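Now for a sample.
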Amino acid sequence: MRFSKNVQFILVIFLLVLTIDANIFINSRIQSLSRKVQDKSIQVIKPVISPRPTFIPTPKLRPEPKINTFSEDSEPWGIAKQLDKYTWTMKVGKDERMGTPQEILDALNVYRERNGRGRLEWNQTLAEYAQSRSDFFAKNGNTDKHEGFNNYLKDENNYKKLGFRSLGENSSIGFQLLGVHLIEWVYAGDKPHNDNQLNSAWSHVGIGVTGTTTDLIFGGDKF
């Protein structure tokens, strides 16, 4: 794929998404409940033994996009570079316009099929949530290290609201690219983001676009 002649040096930083499975929370709580029952039985036998603390794991955050700039000769083109735990950068050009959600979906499915994965169906509920995330990033001028996504899914009822037991997110900000370049250059540029968009567990996706900000919400194991 070639970029348009109107090339600018911008940094694309993109955000992998955190995949959270509702079953993790459910299983953790079941396991915690079992331990509590066991602890109570121990207390009856030996009252001096206090209950062992239970532990419910919390999701880990994934790399966050961040806008940056390069001088003309400072970085190679099209190579994803991880700056820290949450930040990836890439030097890319600028297309004549931004890709639409439909174009991004089409490019994603072509890319998945080429890599032996099934096509993803559009889901309007996921799309509305993705659009709200994209709007939020555009308003604040940056992504949020998946904090909003993570906090939203702390309430297990929101899995049902979105309609899936397993959910993931890829986000990016600060570039103007067509759908094919977004999928095959930006999100395919590093292993974590690429693995997420090629994940065979996904069956549906919703996509939000606001200016040069995008958010993809993936869903699997539909209720």
Summary: Confidence is low (pLDDT under 50) at residues 1-71. The first strand starts at residue 10 and ends at 11. Helices lie at 22-45, 101-114, 124-140, 147-152, 157-162, 179-187, 191-197.
